[in-house]
Design goal:
The structure is a single chain. With 461 residues, the chain is α+β, with helices and mostly antiparallel strands. It has helices at 16-37, 100-107, 117-133, 140-150, 159-171, 205-208, 246-252, and strands at 43-45, 47-69, 74-78, 85-86, 91-96, 177-180, 185-188, 190-191, 215-216, 222-223, 228-243, 257-262, 267-277, 283-289, 301-317, 322-330, 335-336, 342-347, 353-357, 360-363, 367-371, 386-388, 395-397, 401-409, 416-419, 422-425, 429-432, 445-447. β17 (335-336) and β18 form a beta hairpin. The longest helix is centred in the first third of the chain and has 22 residues, at 16-37.
């Protein structure tokens, strides 16, 4: 019996589950690779909103202020802090002609009694306010603050302390003069030469590179007779005058009340707006204010923002807006066919005319706007085509274009250009008109970065 090898063939079985698994895996792998290989296109949902238009100005502060000079030569000590209000005939400063008082105070520091509770509270408050408002580019305010702090160096606690001090000085034969305020007002121990400035003397050059030279009187300093010593601001009303361009005048000509915003201090004030014309023939704005004058006591030129108007509409990111070119064709060449289709009559190469239906993207009082074809579509109008009128010999050569601003709407999954008409804008957002023909509406989805897509491009949201 011979050995025989019997070969059996295996049957091949079709595994449908395995095939489906492979197809799904390949699809997922292809989708991941496609997603990673393309730039992510983000969208923005259109909402209603508003933007406030503000212009920055440099203004000159004018007040009802009067400078008073030293009546005699001598050593001066102020008894009222800088920036405080005083009544008429209130004690304001002492003047020591001989210098004996100054020497005696130096030799006897114990006579300067400690601060009262109210004085300590006042001192802490002034230091806190100064630290909040101080800026490096306004270093001169430090000298003014120091002068105001020094001005209280000869203040004593209570009437008994003052009587005792006067008694000691009298027994030593030391005399000093007490000067009183000639009128009520806000006291300042700095002068800058603009105290008598009038609005009719304004010039544009004054604001180009404004510089103010301030003079301060330190406590205990020796002053000469006739030297400017202090000033009193007698009215709560004050003004800010500032130059205006012709465009500014047009924007503000119907405004009577305005709101000013200051960065330092961070403050908003409302005032009455007027217009003045100076000797140079130029126009200037003037805002009259009634409050917070003491906040700006050491300022003469100041920067502020003036809210000119608030626009409301649809608020969209500025980066969404792009420009797209369109053919412009005079409206008199546009015709409406019997079935309601809009289009133009084009002159053919054989001299005949043919009606070409066209989608009108936009119409204004002068032109119809149509899209520029991206391919050689013989059925579409293109550069060089000649349009005809049916009732005259007039012709129009297609070629001129005009750019419209718009965004790409992606509600349907592909990019569609929609026109927008800006009303107001800043660096980040634009307010556009609502209900614009071929425009956008609230809750529409638009491409956030408009220059990343093109017309008709599929968008995966």
């Amino acid at each position: 019996m011979s050995n025989t090898t019997v070969l059996k063939k295996r049957k091949f079985t079709f595994n449908i589950e395995g095939v489906i698994f492979v197809i799904i895996a390949l699809y997922i792998l292809f989708s991941v690779i496609s997603f990673l290989g393309r730039n992510p296109i983000r969208f923005y949902e259109v909402r209603e909103g508003s933007l406030v238009r503000e212009n920055r100005y440099t203004g000159l502060i004018l007040r009802q202020e009067k400078v008073y000079t030293a009546k005699k030569s001598g050593y001066v000590h102020f008894t009222v802090s800088n920036g405080r209000r005083v009544a008429k005939d209130a004690e304001l400063y002492t003047l020591d002609e001989s210098g004996n008082l100054e020497k005696y105070l130096s030799d006897h520091p114990e006579l300067k009694l400690g601060l009262s509770e109210n004085q300590e509270k006042d001192l802490r408050q002034r230091l806190e306010n100064f630290s909040r408002s101080f800026q490096n580019n306004q270093f001169s305010s430090l000298y003014s603050f120091q002068s105001g702090m020094d001005s209280g160096s000869i203040s004593f606690s209570g009437e008994e302390g003052i009587k005792q001090f006067n008694s000691i000085l009298s027994s030593l034969g030391i005399d000093y003069t007490i000067e009183k305020a000639e009128e009520a007002g806000l006291v300042s121990y700095s002068t800058d030469g603009f105290e008598d400035f009038k609005e009719e003397d304004l010039t544009k050059e004054l604001f180009h590179n404004p510089k103010v030279k301030k003079e301060y009187i330190e406590a205990g300093a020796k002053v000469e007779e006739g030297r400017p010593l202090y000033k009193l601001i007698s009215s709560n009303k004050w003004e800010i005058v500032f130059p205006l361009s012709e465009d500014d005048m047009k924007e503000l000509e119907n405004r009577h009340k305005v709101k000013l915003h200051f960065e330092n201090p961070d403050l908003e004030l409302r005032g009455d707006l007027f217009f003045v014309r100076a000797k140079d023939g130029k126009s200037y704005g003037k805002v009259e204010l009634k409050d917070y004058q003491d906040y700006f006591l050491e300022d003469r030129f100041i920067q502020f923002s003036l809210q000119e108007r608030e626009e409301k509409g649809l608020k969209i990111p500025a980066c969404s807006v792009v420009k797209k070119e369109f053919y412009i064709i005079p409206n008199e060449f546009l015709y409406l066919s019997e079935d309601g289709t809009q289009g133009f009559y084009r002159k053919e190469s054989d001299g005949s005319k043919k009606f070409v239906a066209s989608e009108i993207y936009r119409k204004d009082q002068q032109y119809a706007y149509i899209s520029i074809p991206e391919s050689d579509d013989e059925t579409a109008l293109k550069t060089g085509d000649v349009l005809l009128k049916t009732d005259s010999e007039d012709t129009y050569l297609i070629g001129p274009t005009k750019a419209l601003e718009g965004v790409y709407n992606i509600n349907k999954g592909y990019a569609v250009f929609r026109q927008v008409i800006p009303l107001e804008k800043n660096d980040e957002y634009i307010i556009v008109e609502k209900n614009t023909p071929s425009g956008i509406e609230v809750y529409d989805h638009i491409v956030l970065q408009g220059d990343m897509v093109s017309e008709g491009q599929l968008i995966f949201q």
